[in-house]
Design brief:
Length: 92
């Protein structure tokens, strides 16, 4: 069995199936072990944004670990979504 490479948020990756290169901006971990990554490609030469795509983790190769890293200040900020993290933690 080949070594499994764990991909982290902020890693720069290349999808071996499509050739897409980008930054991992999201990870979904499923009940039976499948991990899928959201890969956001950079803006093109004309400054236009492309849609991020979901890819299976095993088909990604890490080009640069933690190319994008949240600063300590950013990690302390409130989440940008509608979730109340404290309420969710207390419910567990």
């Amino acid at each position: 069995m080949a070594d499994v490479q764990i991909v982290h948020l902020g890693d720069s990756v290349r999808d071996t199936v499509t050739g897409l290169k980008g930054i991992v901006t999201g990870v979904a971990e499923y009940l039976y072990g499948c991990r899928r990554l959201v890969v956001q490609p950079p803006v093109d030469r004309e400054g236009k944004y492309s849609d991020a795509i979901w890819v299976d983790e095993p088909q990604c190769v890490v080009l640069q670990p933690l190319k994008v890293k949240a600063s300590a200040k950013q990690r302390k900020l409130q989440p940008a979504g509608p979730r109340d993290e404290q309420r969710i933690r207390n419910a567990r």
